[in-house]
Every structure is written in C-alpha cells, then in structure tokens.
Amino acid sequence: MSRRSGVLEFAVLGLLREAPMHGYELRKRLNTSLGVFRAFSYGSLYPCLKALVQQGWLAEESGRDPDDPRATPLSNRRARIVYRLTAEGKERFEELLAQTGPDSWEDEHFGVRFAFFGQTSRDVRMRVLEGRRSRLEERLAKMRASMARTREKLDAYTLELQRHGMESVEREVRWLNELIESEREGQEQREQRGQGGARERARPDPSDDSTN
C-alpha cells in the first residue's frame, strides 16, 4: 500500500467511526475537515472504499443520495450506498491510531493524524508531536545551510521566497513546542490530582476513633 493510499484509509476509517456516510458526503468531509484531501477525486475514494469493504472493515447499506450532483432528474430515485464501520473496522482504526513512525510526522500524514488526536492516547500524541518537531528541525537546519551557501547567488525575490519558507517552518516548530508543553502540563496536573486523591484516601477518618 502506498503512503498516500494509507493516509486515505486512515482518514476514511476515522470519519466513518463518527457516523455512517455515503460516498459523496464522505468526500465532502475529506475535503472540508481534512484539507490535505482536496486533490482527491471519486476515482481515488471509491477504490479505497471497495478495498475496505473487501477487507471486512466497512459494510455497505443501500439508501438514497439526494445530494449527489451526479444524479440527474431522471435518476432522482437512484440508490446510494452508505458505508458503515464494522467491528473489525473499528479494531483496524484503533490499531492505526496506536501506530507511530516516520510516516506519522510527514507533511501529508501529520495533518490527518492531528485531526484525530481527540481519539488518540496521550503517549501516541506525544510521540507524533515530538517526531514532527524533530523532522521540521532537521528541515530547518538544511534550509539554513542551503541559504548560507547560496544567498550570494540568489536574486532578491528568490531569497525572500526562501526566507518565507523558513519562517513558515519556524512558526510550526513554535506551535509544536506549545502543544508539547501543554501535553506535559496536562499530564503533570493529572498526576498531581491522582497523588492528592491517594493522600485523601489514606488520611484517617476522624469519625472512626478506634480508641473509643
């Protein structure tokens, strides 16, 4: 499976975990909620859906598609296919959520992974965020080295374009630093609350005076 089709599989399973959808609605969600898929067409989506059905991760249900622009007035009663996540599909999505690795922090995949952070465990979120930051810091170092070598040979506009690219990467690194710090502070607060609760449970009950 290619990296691009793997990202699409992950996104489709994640969106269908929220609710069943027909293909046209699913494509709209991919385009609006996950902007990285704006370039995807029905020609990319439907083979993916078919493959997921064959794997047993999706089930097809018949319905009507009044919003499908491909439906002409003569085919207004055309049946639509609604795709629903199966129990096996939910397990597959859980497996994908738990996976981390270089693909998780590449440009295309990171945005999709981040969109489903609300369903992702804290440990996995931290690995993805830190991996993404590391990847961008490497990219930033290469960009700076390249500019230092070539800046005397570049015209003003090309140089400004390179500066703009560097600033974009620097902004994302700062954003990632803030997210990582927020995750760490949240974990510390949860641990402190847990320790406070443990101390409270261990404190003797004044009403239970064993000397009486």
From TrEMBL:
Region of interest (Disordered), ranges: 180-212
InterPro entries with a match to the protein in the record: Metal_resp_DNA-bind_regulator, Tscrpt_reg_PadR_N, WH-like_DNA-bd_sf, WH_DNA-bd_sf
Keyword Coiled coil: yes
TM ranges: none
UniProt KW keywords: Coiled coil
Ranges of residues in domain Transcription regulator PadR N-terminal: 12-95
Biased composition (Basic and acidic residues): 180-206
Region forming the signal peptide: none
Residue runs in coiled coils: 126-160
Keyword Coiled coil: yes
The protein's name: PadR family transcriptional regulator
Natural source organism: Streptomyces mimosae
